């Protein structure tokens, strides 16, 4: 009788550093820095993308006014997103594949007056 194939180990979670500034921290309980762990793959077994991280942040860290963070399926206009100190537009925006120890920064560029 053949023995069953060994189970594939679950992927190691990704550690991600998050920073919120320019007023964004007000939506996150006045906390500017978080270090989180997220799954390396989604339930569809695809790599975790920045789009998944944004919704994870909304569902797990955002304390109020989600409309000030997300519009449709992305961050709202007026929020600068940096991935490891590089503008997310140069990294593929929502399709950027999250890597272990990435730092993702969200900076509000909109201010009342």
UniProtKB/TrEMBL annotation:
Belongs to the URM1 family. GO terms for biological process: protein urmylation; tRNA thio-modification; tRNA wobble uridine modification. Keywords: Cytoplasm, Isopeptide bond, tRNA processing, Ubl conjugation pathway. C-terminal thiocarboxylation occurs in 2 steps, it is first acyl-adenylated (-COAMP) via the hesA/moeB/thiF part of UBA4, then thiocarboxylated (-COSH) via the rhodanese domain of UBA4. Its main location: cytoplasm. The gene is URM1. GO terms for cellular component: cytosol. Pfam families: Urm1. This is Ubiquitin-related modifier 1. SUPFAM superfamilies: MoaD/ThiS. There is a cross-link at residue 113 (Glycyl lysine isopeptide (Gly-Lys) (interchain with K-? in acceptor proteins)).
